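Hi R.,

Here's the chain you asked about this morning:
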Amino acid sequence: MQYPGHLSSKLPRVGTTIFTEMSALAQQHNAVNLSQGFPDFDPHPKLIEAVSNAMKSGHNQYAPMGGWLPLRERIAEQIEQRYGTAFNPEDEITITAGATQALCTAMAATITEGDEVILFTPAYDAYAPLVELFGGTPVYVKLQFPDYHIDWDQLQHMISHKTKMIVINNPHNPTGAVLKEEDLDRLERIVKNSNILLLADEVYEHIIFDGLKHQSLLSRSALAERTIAVYSFGKTFHMTGWKLGYAVAPQNLMKEFRKVHQFNVFSVNRPAQVGLAEFLTDGSQWEVGQMYAQKRDEFLKLVSSSRFKALASHGSYFVLMDYSAVTDEPDMEYAKRLTIEKGLASIPVSVFYNVPTDHKVLRFCFAKNSETLERGAEILNTL
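And here is the predicted structure, written out as tokens:
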């Protein structure tokens, strides 16, 4: 069936996401799925029990629009403990239906026709369509291969009187790169005395390795005062299907955020919020970095004899693998062939760029149980 009238698409260049495409291909060919970023192991049993108890205790109707207050209080406590910055849980923290909804709401509340938004490529594929959806124009700054660091001089050059926002993704998806303290120094100097907003996608804040410290934009008052920061319970506590995240911002920015939030979702899953608040009375539950570091190291050891070369991954639960010693095929073609013919699904990194850029690297998710990682590595070792 087709709509008989004329419809002018607001996103004419947007199709199905690469994550959906590769996961569907993996399912079709019964491939080991190291493509889409979701764990294949369960959340902590105490968390499942806490959410179950919340449902049994009658927490089955709407949550408050801003979110279950005890959960917002747990968030405020850990932010102040980790970053030394105090946020009021009443009016500066909002629980959202996942991080992507928070990103969408943040842009809907702030981006207007003609605004420019600076994105760093390779970029998570939701950013540019959201900018365009609300009338903005994406402006792209390419991260420097192979460690994917930011060229701050290039960023400075790309800023104009139309620049409304800079999107910072740290730890970075898809590359696993993380910001250093000197990066925040440069960012602080660049936005000083401007009206530029910062949208901080920090969904992997707790998944950082090698003794490094997460350099959150919330850790500096000069950045925090102009930042909407977005986080994901799903990424941290390996329950991405619950679609639960949160946003943190100064009161005047959060006021605008909630004006949109109340009409696109109003509120989100109450029993999950109540259960999480109970679960997080034990503050040590936030600490998942060591577990994921072990999984990264396990995967890298398993593929160490392959012809794939791992690029540095200091955060997130992804690692990029250089396959140039195996084939010179374009990464999109090779990723599909690897899935169909060899039974292993990954993500081609070129799809995260606005212009064709193919460094012959694929993204693999190591947030998997040992059996899955072993099966994936066995395939890579035969290539």
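One quick note: The longest strand covers residues 163-169.

Cheers,
M.
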